[in-house]
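Table S4 entry, proteasome endopeptidase complex.
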Amino acid sequence: LYRISQLAKNDKPIANRIKIWAENPSQFRLSSRAHRTKSQKAQIKSGRSVPARIMKFDSSGLESTASVFGTAGSELVDGFSAAPAFELPTTTDFDGFQKEAVQMVKPAKGTTTLAFIFKDGVIVAADSRASMGGYISSQSVKKIIEINPYMLGTMAGGAADCQFWHRNLGIKCRLHELTNKRRISVTGASKLLANILFSYRGMGLSVGTMIAGWDETGPGLYYVDSEGGRLKGTRFSVGSGSPYAYGVLDSGYRADMSIEEAAELGRRAIYHATFRDGASGGVASVYYVGPDGWKKLSGDDVSELHYKYYPVVPTEAPEPDRMVEA
């Protein structure tokens, strides 16, 4: 554009040819000495005609040609005045573009999930309530999802996001097993999920999960979220009821517990979370992951657990006071 503007300032015939092109671009031809081949130069010396090179000039993105052609090329402005204009984006943060709008329509969610390692393996427990704001949409959601026979994942956040990415992780773990002739480790599976979620960071995913399992190194437990964060630990709780579950879990946790004691601790922590958190409820499911794989230990309705932990003791009605005769 700069070169053409200089030619237009100093050479009126070229300016006229550009103006003609503006009116009928298909007829515009411009020969350039710099791009002539040796055979073309030989043809010019011998007096023969040389086919002109077609030069395409795109002006679709120009809103004004004043800064290009200046005042000397004002006769070209008429040809570009009808060029279409487009609006430039007003933001440079494309990861966070309209993130507020996504948050406005995202329904509130609530759940309680927990997992902890003890001497015999890993205990995983969760409730079964799904909510949309103040509306309880389901009381029977399966929040503990199988990844492979030796690994489980928990679901907290958006139900669709968690279910899809856990199924996707299960497929990738199976492909790894078929390719390498060995099961993927808990560390590898959690890192694989964290890398996937990190690549979608800022796109509205809502995932808070724990990956619990048993591999060649023993029991493993990792926390992974939709921002790509990944933490290793011995006990975690995720969801709106997690502060209440942590209170029971931290006070009763021991590494040398038996399987029955560990299952009871997980069941009791889920119950107390559902008792205090309105977004958690339904059925308290408890799973155990050990050297032989995972298995479900129990699934108790939290309303029945309430009477187990707080039994109603019938009391006799007090006798009415006897009237004292005067």
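Residues 108-309 form a domain with the Glutamine Phosphoribosylpyrophosphate, subunit 1, domain 1 fold (CATH 3.60.20.10).
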